[in-house]
Backbone:
């Protein structure tokens, strides 16, 4: 379906990434946000709070991040599209409820504008050090989807994608920005509503007495249909392991069936969830794997290396989770090495190393607070190509 | 336009960020080019050091940071001391002349000074000194079309302050035009609009 024009601010704007993310959420149809504002993500909800009364919806400034991350899930079961926005310290507090959204298959979006950590860290400065937390932060085995934009335009475009994927797979989606992209201002083109594709909620149309909240349709999809509160359907939403009726089921079989399906509905959709940008990777000796702001910084290093005659390709991950194992595997048949610059001490580089199956993988770490010097990335490329 | 790096720096509260937004918006939204604006500031709201970086180009900008500005606009002595060393040779230095005392400079640096705060006070609001500065910037660099900048000023400030800010822009612009004319007549610097050196 197409976007509702009410939330779409069609036109050419000069926006920072935070504001563009807010506009993406509004265009995607988000009509509820709950948050506990935190630098450097505050501008997202600040704008949402200003815009939503005119668009039609609600923003609640909650008492903390725990409340924010569960209030949005209540709103979703009430029929809204909803999201919350935070940065590292708040993201840590939301982990419990990310697991809850996974278990209850509540489609929602968690925006994390990453800053330097651990703890309070560097409130106004960038990092990409929550990437593993986005994947593994809540307890239990599960899969989520995580996206990384590298410009304000992508903060708009990919926020819409984040909402769409959360609806399609009924999974919480992590929108992993960073302080640089959040506070960077560039031209953002917002198209007319009729050009924006929106994934509708996977709502059930079954007769009331035939509906089981966690039953798959038999059409091959592993994503059950959803009912909203107040529509006459009986359903139970619980974080306990449950059967197809949503009733707690404390058995090995029920656990295997549920947790297996929660994993499979994402991992078996790897092709649909591949969103990357490739540049000269086909005949590259060295492939620089990068995401978020670092992809733009790395470009200088890549350009310098190419100017020196090195065969360097770039693989930019727009969707980081699920990780594109198959693509890395394919590239590793030709490439001699992978170089992974990131604003952390080695997170996604380990995933690349794992998927590359023995092909040399060089991490270019950075503890955060700034971005890499392009010459450090160049140096790593040169060393990797030897 | 070739890739041009601009840094604007001063105290928090002088409107440093807004002036960079206006320039970036004019160049990208109204002139169809590309602009990337980034900013850095301390945790304090006013009085701390504040700097905005704006890169303009007619091609998409990948690397988003300014390392060696072609143009440096400074509105405080601290900003002058901190950022002047990174200005390119033959770059342009624009200063708030009542707030900045200039020392030794790299060869070929062109200096344009303007009493932006005083000019803003003549309009009744010191607050608009940043837009006076943008007007002056437009006149002495010729980098961004003045009408595009006027449009960007008009829609970047609250509507009831638009008129005042446009006056501030024009005041700075006229001061800049006169300054350039006087400089050329005095034979001090040969002025070419759109001819900023980009040699690297």
Residues:
């Amino acid at each position: 379906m197409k976007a509702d024009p009410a939330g779409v601010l069609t036109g050419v704007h000069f926006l920072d990434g935070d504001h563009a993310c807010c506009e993406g959420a509004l265009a995607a149809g988000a009509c509820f946000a709950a948050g506990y504002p935190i630098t450097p993500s505050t501008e997202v909800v600040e704008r949402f709070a200003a815009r939503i009364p005119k668009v039609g919806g609600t923003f609640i400034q909650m008492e903390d991040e725990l409340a924010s991350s569960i209030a949005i899930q209540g709103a979703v079961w009430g029929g809204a599209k909803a999201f919350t926005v935070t940065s590292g310290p708040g993201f840590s507090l939301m982990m419990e409820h990310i697991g809850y959204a996974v278990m209850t298959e509540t489609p929602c979006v968690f925006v994390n504008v990453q800053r330097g950590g651990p703890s309070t860290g560097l409130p106004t400065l960038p990092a990409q050090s929550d990437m593993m937390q986005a994947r593994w932060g809540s307890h239990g085995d599960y899969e989520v989807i995580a996206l990384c934009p590298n410009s304000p335009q992508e903060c708009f475009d990919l926020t819409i994608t984040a909402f769409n994927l959360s609806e399609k797979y009924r999974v919480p989606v992590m929108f992993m920005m960073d302080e640089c992209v959040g506070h960077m201002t560039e031209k953002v083109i917002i198209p007319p509503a009729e050009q924006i594709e929106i994934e509708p909620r996977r709502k059930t149309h079954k007769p009331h007495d035939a509906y089981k909240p966690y039953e798959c349709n038999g059409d091959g999809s592993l994503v059950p249909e959803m009912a909203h509160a107040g529509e006459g359907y009986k359903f139970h939403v619980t974080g306990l392991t449950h059967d197809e009726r949503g009733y707690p089921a404390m058995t090995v079989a029920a656990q295997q069936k549920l947790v297996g399906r929660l994993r499979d509905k994402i991992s078996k959709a790897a092709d649909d969830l591949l969103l990357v940008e490739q540049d000269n990777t086909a005949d590259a000796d060295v492939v620089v794997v990068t995401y978020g702001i670092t992809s733009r910084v790395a470009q200088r290093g890549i350009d310098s290396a190419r100017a020196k005659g090195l065969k360097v390709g770039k693989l930019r991950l727009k969707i980081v989770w699920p990780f594109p194992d198959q693509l890395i595997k394919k590239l590793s048949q030709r490439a001699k090495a992978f170089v992974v610059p990131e604003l952390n001490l080695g997170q996604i580089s380990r995933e690349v190393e794992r998927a590359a199956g023995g092909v040399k993988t060089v991490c270019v770490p950075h503890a955060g607070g700034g971005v890499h010097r392009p010459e450090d990335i160049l140096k790593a490329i040169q060393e990797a190509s030897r | 336009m070739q890739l041009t790096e601009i840094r604007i720096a001063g105290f928090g509260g002088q409107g440093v960020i807004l002036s960079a937004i206006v320039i970036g918006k004019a160049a990208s939204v109204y002139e169809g080019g590309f602009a990337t604006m980034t900013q850095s500031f301390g945790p304090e709201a006013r009085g701390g050091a504040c700097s905005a970086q704006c890169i303009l180009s007619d091609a998409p900008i990948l690397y988003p940071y300014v390392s060696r500005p072609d143009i440096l606009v400074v509105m405080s002595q601290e900003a002058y001391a901190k950022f002047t060393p990174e200005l390119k040779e033959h770059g342009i230095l624009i200063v708030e002349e009542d707030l900045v005392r200039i020392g030794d400079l790299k060869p070929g640096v062109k200096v344009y000074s303007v009493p932006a705060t005083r000019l803003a006070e003549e309009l009744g609001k010191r607050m608009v000194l940043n837009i006076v500065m943008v007007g002056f910037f437009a006149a002495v660099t010729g980098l961004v079309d003045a009408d595009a900048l006027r449009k960007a000023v008009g829609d970047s400030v609250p509507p009831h302050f638009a008129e005042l800010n446009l006056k501030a822009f024009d005041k700075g612009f006229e001061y800049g035009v006169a300054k350039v004319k006087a400089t050329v007549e005095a034979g001090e610097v040969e002025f070419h609009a759109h001819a900023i050196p980009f040699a690297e």
Q: What stands out?
A: The longest strand of chain B covers residues 49-57.
